[in-house]
Amino acid sequence: MNNNRRLNSPALEEIQTLVSRFADACMRRDAVAFKQLWTADAVWKIGEPFPLLENGRDNVVAAFVKLLGQWEFFAQFPHSLLVEVNGPSATGQCSVEELGQNTTTNASYHNIAYYYDDLRQENGEWLFCRRDYRYLWLGDPWCFLFMVIRKLASLL
In the chain, N or C: fewer CB atoms in 10 Å? Predict the structure, then answer.
């Protein structure tokens, strides 16, 4: 990514707002607001150790609702957004920190990750057409262990 291209463009501010709206929708558990952030052909991918791949805005929103159902508390904090704008499309990446507390076990969840984004401007508004979440660090090994056991149990 050429981090020096058009950093002062109006698109940068609009995309920063989009990323902030994503985090806000997560923290408020607002599926309606979350849905408004995606294109109809959206793809949401979350990498290992908790892989998820959803295609289409409605499937993305359904996954969002299901994921948040396992958290008593969940907060997301995006940092360090880098964007490259090419007309009505853009790519971006930002580091993200997440905190949560599991509803079943009360275990804490803490991670650092990167979101790699493809964005598209539709009707004058920037939207996510793809978000790819890649874990860099996952804290609290007990929470991690519980989730791995739960994943394995679902395969039986």
Answer: C
